[in-house]
Amino acid sequence: MHDIQLTVNGKAERAQVPATMTLLELLRDRFALTGAKEGCGIGECGACTVLLNDVPVTSCLILAVEADGHRVDTIEGEAVCGELSILQQAFIDTGAAQCGFCTPGMIMSARGLLLRKPNPSHEEIVEAIAGNLCRCTGYEAILEAIHLASQRMQDGGAS
Amino acid sequence: MSRELQVVGRPIDRADAIDKVTGAARYTHDLAIPGMLHTALVLSPHASARIVSIDTAKAEALPGVRVVLTGDGLCYQLGLYMQDKCILARDVVRYQGEAVVAIAADTPDIARAASQLVSVEYEELPSVLDPREAMDDGAHLVHPDLHTYDHMQGVFFPKAHSNIAHHQKIRKGDFDQAFANADVRMTASFYNPPVQHVPMETHATIAQALPQQRAELWTSSQSPYTVRHLLSVCFGIPHANLRVHVPYVGGGFGGKAGLGLEPLAYVLSRAANGRPVKVVATREQEFNTLPSRQGLHSTLEIGATRNGKITSLKSTYLWDAGAYADYGVNIGRAAAYSGAGPYSIDNCWIDSYVVYTNKVFGTAYRGFGHLEVLWGIERAMDQMARKLALDPAEFRRRNLLREGDTTITGEPFTPGHGKPQECLDAVAEAIAWGIPSDPPTAPHKVRGKGLAMLHKAPAMPTNTSCAAVIKLDEDGGADVLISGVDYGQGTYTVMRQIAAEELGIAIDKVHITWECDTAFSPYDWQTVASRFAYMGGNAVIEAAADCRSQLRAVVSQALSVPADQLILEGGKVYPSGAPDRAIPYSKLALGYTFENGNSIGGPVIGHGRCIATGLTHLDPDTGQGLPAQFWTYGAHAVEIEVDTQTGEIEVLNIVSALDAGKVLNPKLCVGQVVGGVVQGLGSALWEGFVFDENGRFLNPAFVDYKIPTAKDIPHHSQQILLENPQPGGPYGARGIAEHPMISIPSAIGNALYDALGIEFTTLPLNYERILSRIRERAEAN
C-alpha cells in the first residue's frame, strides 16, 4: 500500500492505494467520482479522460501512485456551485451529447485544449478529441460545441 | 388538429443534457449495491469443442471467491425468437469467446485471479465457419438438436438436422419466366462481414436474487419488459416478482435489445445466496462474447426491359448467424420482406436463410439487415444501370415504388408511405448529380460521386404494444411514465414535447422519469425498430387526452359548465369565452376544492396505449402479408476522393434525405442523421471481424477494429428532412433512428466505381482492399 496525496477538483485528498490501482479506479471506486467512464480499460477509447496538471490523460493507463503530489480535474469539477461552464453549456446548445457515455471524457479533452490554446483552429480541435471515441453523434456537434465555447470565452465569458 | 403546434417540431434541448455534461448521469457501470460481488468469465479458446472436464477446485479455494458456476446444472435455453442459447456453455462450446465458467468474488481482482486458476479440458470438434459451407449436406451441425428447440411458431421455420435456423421465402409473380424474357440480365454476389455495435458502455447488469422467488435487476438494456418476460419464462418466476431497472444507457444500437448478461447475473446471485452480483463485459468480451451484426452473403439475379424497368429479381441471402440465432432469425425475416429495395418488382423470388456457424453470434444492429441487403441491391442497381446505359438516378426513378404499385409482400404503396423519389431528387440536386466533380487535390487522386436509396419498416411482432401514463403534479406540471429507453436517440425529449403540446403546458413543466423501472413504468415491448416515436408518441397523446377529459369532468362540475364548452390552454381550464373563470391545473391535479372545503375529483392520472394494427404473419410459402406498420424511405448521395497510391478514401460530402413524415424535434432529428451516417461510414470503410482459419477472432479491440474518429468524418454533410405525413403517426411522424446508417456503404461503393471504374462487392472498403484492386488492374494492363 502507498500513501498518496493529490488535489482533486481543487480539494486536497489522501488515499492508501495498492501499487496496481489505476487513477480511474481511485476516482471511481474510492472517491465516488463516476463521471470518468471505463469504455475499454486499455487507453483506446478516451472515455476515462481527466486532466492531470491540466493535461488530458486516459486515467485507466495512469497508476494512482503516479498522481501523487499532482492536480487532477474531472468532469465533476467542471461546473462550479451548480453553474455550468461555458464548455458544458456549449455541449448542450449544439446537441453534442447523445447517450452521454463519452461526454465527460470528451469535455475534459476539450478543456485541456482550451487551457492550452484558448482560440484553437479546427484542426487543433479535431486533433484534441481524436482519441475520444463517440459512437452516437458523428462528432460534428461536438466539434461545433468546442468552437462555440472558444468563441464565447473570447467574447468575454470566464470559462 | 388545426391549431399551430407550440412545442412539437421545435428544436428543444434534450432533457438529459445537464446530467450528461456534468457527469451526474448514472449508468449501470456506475452503480454499486451494498454487498455486491464482482465477476470474471472463462471463455472458450476453441470455435467448436466438447467440454471434457472443468476443474474449478483451485479457483473455489481462493479467498474471496464466493461462486464458481459452470454450465452443468444450468438447464435453461433462452432466446427471444429461437430458444437456442444456454447461460454458460453446456457439454460443447460453439464459438471462440463463448462463456464457459463464471466466477463471482469480493473484488474484480480476485475474480480475475480465480478465472486464471480454472482449467478446462476440451476435445476439439469439427467446425463450420462459412455459412455457404454450413448449407452443405454433411456439414458439421452447430445445433444437432435444433429440431427440439422451442421457437416462435408460425413465424420462424428452422430446418431439422441442418444449420438453417430460419428460412424466409418471398414469392411474387413468376420469376423464372420474367427473367427468361428479360432484355437485359445480370447476376452478382456481395458480402458483408460481421461487425460490432460498439456502444461506449459495454453490457453491464447487476442482479440480486431475493427470497420468495423474487429478483431485482439493474441493467444496461433497451428492453426492460422483454428482459423481465424472458427471465420470468426461463426461471419460472412470476412476472411481478421480477423488477428490472434501466438507468442511463451508454448506447445500444440494437445490441442491448435481446437478453445479454441478465440471466448470468441472476444465476450467480442465486448461487451466492442472494448477494448482488455485477457482471460487466470487458471491451474484448463486448466484441467476442456478446452478439454482433450477422455477416451476409447475397447473390442477386436481376432482369430488366431495354427501357429500364426491372421485371424480375431473385435473391439468395445467406446470413452468418454465428453460433446462436435467438434474435438473428428475425433479421433474416425482415431483410427478406425488404429484400428488393424500395422498388416495384412484379416477379420476385427471395430465399433468406439464417445459418448457424461456429462464430460469435449475431443480433439486431441499427438497420436490422437492411444495410447489408442494400449493400448488394444498391450496388447492383448501379451495375444494371450501366448495362442499360442509363444514368443510375434515372434508372432508380423508373423503378421506385409509386402509388398503385404493391411491395413484394403484396402491400399496396400509398401516398401515406411518403415519397421515395423526392428523397432521391433532393440528394441528386444537392450533390450536383450529373455535373463532374471539381479536379482532385493531387494528380494521383481521383474523385467520384455515388448515390443509393434506402428503406426500412419496424420489424416487430404483429401484437407489439406500448403504454404511457401521465400524472399531473400539484404545481400544474406533469410526470410522464414510459418504458421506452432513451439510450441517446432523444426519445424522452420528444415524449416531453408531445405531452406539453397535448396538455397545453410549457415544456419545462413536463418531467420524465429517467430510470425505467418495471415496477412503476407501464409496458413497452422493446426500444428497437425505430418505432417508439410512433407508438410511444401515440400512447402519450392518448394519455394526455385521458388527463384532459378528467380535468374537463372536474371543471364542468366545479363551474357548472358543460364539459364540451371548456377550453384547456396554458395550463388552465376555462369556459369558452370566459377566460376570467379559469382554474389552473395546479388546483385540479389532486382534485378540486370548493370555497367551503368540499372537494371533488382526485389525482389526475391519464393512461394511453398503442398496439400495432393490421399486421399479419407472412405466409410461410410465399411471404405474402402485411409485415410493416409504416415504412421510412430515404436516399444518400456522396462525393469522395480516392488516393490511388494508398487506397485511402477521403469523404468530401454526404447528403442525406429522409422522409420523416413530421420532424418532431429538428435538432435531435438532425443529430440522429449525422450520427447514423458516420456509423454507416464505419461499416463502409473500416469495420469487419477477422477470423483465422480455426475461427479465432483476431481483432477484438479498437487498435485492430477501427471505428470512425473525429478525424474520419465527411468534410461536408447535409441533412434534408421531408415531411410527407404518415397516417396514424403522431403529427404524421414516422421512425427515423436507424435509417441514416443504411445504404451509406452502397453510396460509397457506387462513388468508388465512379472514381476508379472498379467494382467492389465486399465490405469494408478499406485501404488495403482498394489498393490491392488498383494494383491488380495496373498489373493486368
Defining traits:
heterodimer, A: 159 residues, alpha+beta, Ubiquitin-like (UB roll), DNA polymerase, domain 1, 5-stranded mixed sheet, 5 helices, 5 strands, 33% helix, B: 781 residues, Aldehyde Oxidoreductase, domain 4, 3 domains
Overall shape of chain B: globular
H/E order of the elements of chain A?
EEHEEEHHHH
Mean residue pLDDT of chain A: 97
* Total helical segments of chain A: 5
Widest sheet, order of strands of chain B: 3-5-1-12-9-10-11-20
Helix proportion range of chain B: 10-25%
CATH homologous superfamily annotation of the largest domain in chain A: Beta-grasp domain
Mean pLDDT figure of chain B: 97
Unreliable stretches of chain A: none
User: Would you give the CATH topology of the largest domain in chain A?
Assistant: Ubiquitin-like (UB roll)
Helical content band of chain A: 25-40%
Q: What overall form of chain A do the CA principal axes indicate?
A: globular
Question: How many structural units, i.e. domains of chain A?
Answer: 2
CATH architecture classification of the largest domain in chain A: Roll
- Our count of domains of chain B comes out at 3
Radius of gyration of chain A from CA coordinates:
15 Å
Radius of gyration of chain B: 27 Å
Structure annotation, total helices of chain B: 17
Biggest interface? A-B, 52 and 55 residues
Low confidence ranges of chain B:
none
